[in-house]
Amino acid sequence: MNKIFSSPEEAVADISDGATLLVGGFGLVGIPENLIEALRKKQVRHLTCVSNNCGVDDWGLGLLLQQRQIRKMISSYVGENKTFEKQFLSGELEVELVPQGTLAERIRAGGAGIGGFYTPTGVGTTVAEGKEIRVFDGREYVLEMPIRGDFALIKGWKADLYGNVVYRKTARNFNPMMAAAGKVTIVEVEEIVEPGMLDPDEIHTPSIYVQRIVLGKSYQKRIEKRTVRQA
């Protein structure tokens, strides 16, 4: 099975209006820059995006917000994007805020085929409203449901022709669990190598989870906030 696509545009060609997307990244680290740009050009709309955050105004998922392509965001943090704030306050954008650990586990559960899990995080807050509460060993837990996506957009460092993927350092973040939870997983990487060139012990996402691979280019790898100490 040939998993290599010639361009990001070709790789996202069948993503249609109303799709649910799992988008890797934490802040601006490990985001699928080229795939997001391809979606921006495609003008697909009414998307539900699951991501740790929504980028910044002029980069990452913020580019899709600018063109009002996102209908709903499921995130754990949304504080660095003025466009997001305006659209949310005006009622244009639906938002589901999820505690970060719960968000990670809901996505992992989706990839693992788990029907739901209980966590103490959020009990007694608006996060738990309308959800089942159970008591274990005298402590209350809230039932959280798994998250799955029509497509997962993933940023890797290296991949082989089979689709085995290696991430680099903190750019791993949400990417491996999202790769497992997408019905169709599209991975953009900085380098594609021949089978056998990746050490099996280094592989973070096995090829079974990957349907499409595209070689990215012109990475900006922006730093969201640069902090340096005084001389």
UniProtKB/TrEMBL annotation:
SUPFAM superfamilies: NagB/RpiA/CoA transferase-like. Pfam families: CoA_trans. InterPro entries: 3-oxoacid_CoA-transf_A, CoA_trans_fam_I, CoA_transf_BS, NagB/RpiA_transferase-like. One of its GO terms (molecular function) is succinyl-CoA:3-oxo-acid CoA-transferase activity. Keywords: Transferase. It comes from the Bacteria. Its EC number is 2.8.3.5. It is an enzyme of class 2 (transferase). NCBIfam families: pcaI_scoA_fam (TIGR02429). Belongs to the 3-oxoacid CoA-transferase subunit A family. This is 3-oxoacid CoA-transferase subunit A.
